Dolichol-phosphate mannosyltransferase subunit 1
Amino acid sequence: MASLEVSRSPRRSRRELEVRSPRQNKYSVLLPTYNERENLPLIVWLLVKSFSESGINYEIIIIDDGSPDGTRDVAEQLEKIYGSDRILLRPREKKLGLGTAYIHGMKHATGNYIIIMDADLSHHPKFIPEFIRKQKEGNFDIVSGTRYKGNGGVYGWDLKRKIIRSDCFIWQPWGQFFNSDLAETRSI
């Protein structure tokens, strides 16, 4: 991981969080999809592998936006393979956009932490345990990483894609991880 940034809400202590959420930590991964039929099995397998090897309790929420390529069918098969307690398909009938897909996924998340990822394999799940470790170290509400600082980068992108996405080098996060209580207090 090239760089991690953290944020802490001053309103709650670790003890207050434990009293509010005494359950074992559970991580809900929001995975919005649109035409990701080919990538979905691999990203789900990588997520399951990363969580299983780390002993982390998780669920993966796939929010498909009416993909015409059969992504929903693939997601249904993955739900059967890994179980509906681990893979939750929460599809929408048409393409409504990434932001609303995240909100839709948050409404179905049962974890006390939410991880936002892309399904196009631009974010590798192997870094999730590092995010979790960082969160636990400082009791942070938000942990965010970027592939555009330090030793990060984008591999396999041709020059055209790098130029088109040059704005990403300034602001786009690698992925985000946050306490679900934070979303609830902000009425998300």
